[in-house]
Amino acid sequence: MPAAKPPAPSDRYTYYELAVTNPGPLARFLRAVHGRDPIVLGEDFSGAAALCRAWLESARSARAVAVDSDPAPLRHAPRSARLQRVVADVRAANHPADVIAATNFPVGYWHTRADLVAYLRHARSRLNPDGIFVCDLYGGPDAMIPKVTTRKMYEKDGTPFWYVWEQRSANPLTGRVMNAIHFRCPAAHGGVRHLKNAFTYDWRLWSIPELREAMTDAGFATTEVHDRLGGAIDGDGTLYVRPIDDPAELDENYVVYVVAR
């Protein structure tokens, strides 16, 4: 059964998917970095489960579990017999998976190392043999600078909208950042509709070594860092991925994907 298509771009969840997420390439990356034939994806902090939908579209045998404590975005998730939607704290989910992904920086919701390790240990307990856990981080010299960034983007029919990322405050002594996402989009009867504070965040911005050490303490055997969602694709459609070891390979302001096996 094919995955359902997303709703028309009229709500904050759909604008978020258009502006922030990259579900198709991310799903291909997760398969490649797993390295075998993963079947079940667990999407923690799933929101409207865009990654789950891309995962289901990537293989007829694929199945997925979308977990989020907020039922509102899950109502926008795909309707599919191969997708299980779970309204729960991710630390209470007990559904096994080959890959668990927590992307768009949700590990920042854990403000203490003890809470971070506890979550990682629980995620590890859900993984099938040879399973992987993947999350992302951002960092660099701009990561602790309050600022506003606006980008003009387009709906699938070509209608423009504006994505606004606001880092309201940042405390380098604690690693805490306060962020918000706003949208400006066409109104029903002309003009512009402002979706102010469409999403707000209070995150602890973990560093790469802090996260990798927490993963090791949670019981993972190895960790690796990727700064891209893969490299070349061969004629058979195989995506090649390579972790980085040299810090010179990082962009000055970076987003990385940290993989724990």
Structure characterization notes:
The protein has 261 residues and is an alpha/beta fold. The protein folds into two domains: 12-139 and 206-260, Rossmann fold; 147-204. 22% of the residues lie in helices and 34% in strands. The chain is built from six helices and eleven strands. The chain has helices at 12-19, 23-34, 50-58, 71-74, 113-126, 208-217; strands at residues 40-44, 63-68, 83-87, 97-102, 127-139, 147-154, 160-171, 176-186, 192-204, 223-226, 254-260. It has a seven-stranded mixed β-sheet. A four-stranded antiparallel β-sheet has the order 6-7-8-9, with helices on one face. Helix 5 (113-126) links the parallel strand 4 (97-102) and strand 5 (127-139). The longest helix has 14 residues, at 113-126.
